[in-house]
Recover the amino acids of this structure.
């Protein structure tokens, strides 16, 4: 049996192929993406806005920015088991991540919180 | 297997550059990553052309997506170079960006006007609903020209704006649209399913420069060697794609990366090369006439006011020249 991410990737590949329109929009997300969400905070638990959050899968990175309350959400065609979340912001260094993966539902959102520490 | 062998050979020989690997973060919009417009990059990666040049090549997709966000990603430091549709580069430069095209990636895009099976001619589209891309974009401008060429003007048909070929293909298949412009490979696949090909945009629009690699001038000046390695790898990819001896391998890459059959992938390549339609550059060279045509199209759509800018201000040819591309 094929790993489920290969099957999911097949759907996503078909969905996004040749989407480039020369126009203004993207066909972003079609219900089969893997969803990652979480917060970026400092070592005291305070939210960090404007941090760069990267999801790396194979040789590709998807990059977004944490919002005003340190939150982020990334929905992309990747295998969650092979995807890594990292966070960075000038003046900080990442000290750790806390990942919570639901044990049950397939394609359930994966929560990854980043902790950053101010550099001296 | 081929990639594994190539990797072993490269590991044994070392990189051609023979120097410390240089990292390059290449931006792609979300909608491009699995599209046909990513083909030169996909080939360069899979065949090890960037690795051979000593380039640690990384694809970065800024989120939230948007083809119009790619030049912004250069400015906020998310990426070093980026794939971008030419009109978006022109808009940003005219707004003050120091971004510039350093190589062509795709020319002369072919968008097919595909209709429901019961529609057999352009005349049948009168009073029907047509799915358009962004109204100010090159696809819509080209499709309007195609419709006008066949006697249909605004008001003869209803317009529904739908971004992206997959979304327009869905509109057609679900029956909400009577006709839509589709890129490859969806247009080829739709024909195989019985939908009607009425014509394509190249019938009505002169060739133009569709997508390029762009970089900020300041970044390129500070990272010249990285840019040169990238351009050598990209040139090798174009040569590989164009070589009849490797056509089968390219078709397999198109099939895998776009989630289509080998047969449809072969038809897509035949559409591009049999006969030659100038869709892909030979080595990454930038067609200045094609760029001038984009400017003309944007002016026609009211996106650029007079006087029209010169194409030269959007291109820095020194890097292509340095690697021997004319």
């Amino acid at each position: 049996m094929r790993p489920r991410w290969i099957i999911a990737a097949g759907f996503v590949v078909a969905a996004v192929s040749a989407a480039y329109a020369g126009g203004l929009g993207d066909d972003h997300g079609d219900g089969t993406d893997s969803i990652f969400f979480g917060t970026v905070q400092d070592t005291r638990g305070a939210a960090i806005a404007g941090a760069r959050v990267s999801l790396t899968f194979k040789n590709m990175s998807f990059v977004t920015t944490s919002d005003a309350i340190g939150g982020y959400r990334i929905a992309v065609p990747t295998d969650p088991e092979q995807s890594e979340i990292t966070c960075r912001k000038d003046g900080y260094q990442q000290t750790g991540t806390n990942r919570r993966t639901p044990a049950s539902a397939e394609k359930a959102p994966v929560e990854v919180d980043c902790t950053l520490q101010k550099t001296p | 297997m081929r990639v594994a062998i190539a990797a072993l050979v490269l590991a044994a020989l070392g990189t051609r550059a023979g120097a410390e690997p240089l990292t390059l973060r290449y931006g792609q919009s979300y909608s491009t990553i699995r599209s046909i417009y990513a083909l030169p990059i996909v080939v360069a990666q899979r065949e090890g052309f960037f690795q051979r040049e000593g380039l640690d090549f990384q694809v970065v997709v800024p989120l939230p997506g948007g083809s119009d966000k790619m030049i912004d990603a250069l400015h906020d430091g998310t990426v070093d170079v980026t794939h971008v549709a030419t009109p978006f580069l022109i808009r940003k430069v005219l707004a003050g960006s120091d971004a510039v095209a350093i190589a062509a990636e795709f020319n002369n895009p072919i968008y097919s006007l595909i209709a429901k099976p019961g529609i057999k001619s352009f005349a049948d589209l009168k009073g029907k609903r047509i799915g358009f891309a962004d109204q100010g974009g090159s696809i819509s401008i080209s499709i309007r020209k195609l419709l006008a060429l066949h006697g249909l003007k605004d008001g003869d048909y209803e317009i529904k704006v739908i971004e992206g070929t997959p979304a327009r293909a869905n509109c057609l298949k679900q029956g909400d649209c009577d006709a839509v412009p589709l890129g490859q490979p969806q247009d080829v696949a739709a024909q195989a399913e019985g939908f009607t090909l009425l014509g394509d945009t190249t019938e009505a629009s002169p060739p133009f420069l569709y997508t390029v690699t762009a970089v900020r001038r300041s970044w390129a000046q500070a990272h010249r060697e990285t840019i040169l390695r990238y351009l050598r790898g990209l040139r090798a990819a174009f040569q590989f794609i164009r070589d009849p001896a490797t056509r089968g391998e390219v078709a397999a890459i198109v099939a895998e990366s776009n989630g289509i059959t080998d047969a449809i992938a072969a038809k897509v390549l035949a559409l591009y090369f049999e006969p030659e339609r100038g869709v892909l550059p030979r080595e990454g060279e930038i067609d200045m006439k094609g760029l001038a045509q984009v400017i003309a199209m944007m002016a026609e759509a009211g996106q650029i006011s007079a006087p029209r800018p010169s194409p030269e201000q959007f291109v820095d040819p020194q890097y292509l020249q340095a690697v021997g591309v004319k």
Notes: The CA atoms of residues 95 and 222 of chain B lie 23 Å apart. The first helix of chain B runs from residue 2 to 13.
